[in-house]
Amino acid sequence: MLSDVPYNLYFALSGILFTIGAIGAITRRNAIIVFMCIELMLNAVNLAFIAGGNMLSSMDGTIFVFFIMTVAAVEAAVGLAIFVMIFRLKQTINLDEINLLKG
Q1: Are the beta carbons of 11 and 48 closer than 8 angstroms?
Q2: How does DSSP assign 65-76, residue by residue?
Q3: What architecture is domain 2-90?
Q4: Mean pLDDT of the chain
Q5: Is residue 15 within 8 Å of 52, Cβ to Cβ?
Q6: Distance between CA 100 and CA 53 in Å, rounded?
Q7: 12-55, pLDDT tens digit by residue?
Q8: Model's pTM, two decimal places?
Q9: Which pLDDT score, from 0 to 100, does residue 13 have?
Q10: Closest-CA residue to 17 (of 3, 36, 4)
């Protein structure tokens, strides 16, 4: 199935998704949206690893994807717990209004 579509289209889609995620992470101020943009960037890298591994007939890309998915799952669990605690403390998750270094 992966060989039906040229590999350069997979890499182009991966680059587009990564760019959308990077722009969203830089421009947005809501912590949850920034978090989702970082997840989008991780999935774009996963797509590139899978396509590259398939193009080279290697399982290395798939192995890297499993490690990235593990990191993303841990990031989701810890990140959402941090967001809940920040919301309880500051009553907002807007990144401009959160400054935990001040008392």
Answers
A1: yes
A2: HHHHHHHHHHHH
A3: Orthogonal Bundle (1.10)
A4: 90
A5: no
A6: 43
A7: 999 999 999 999 999 998 888 999 999 999 999 999 999 999 99
A8: 0.84
A9: 97
A10: 36
Assess contact for 69 and 32: CB atoms under 8 A: no
| Phi, psi for residue 94 in degrees, rounded to 5 | -75, 125
**Tokens read off for 102:** 């001040």
Is residue 87 a contact partner of residue 97, using CB atoms and an 8 Å limit?
no
Q: For 1-103, list the strands marked E by DSSP.
A: none
For residue 91, the model assigns a pLDDT of 87
Domain parsing of the chain, residue ranges:
2-90
- Region 71-77: mean pLDDT is 91
Q: How far apart are CA 14 and CA 20, in angstroms?
A: 10
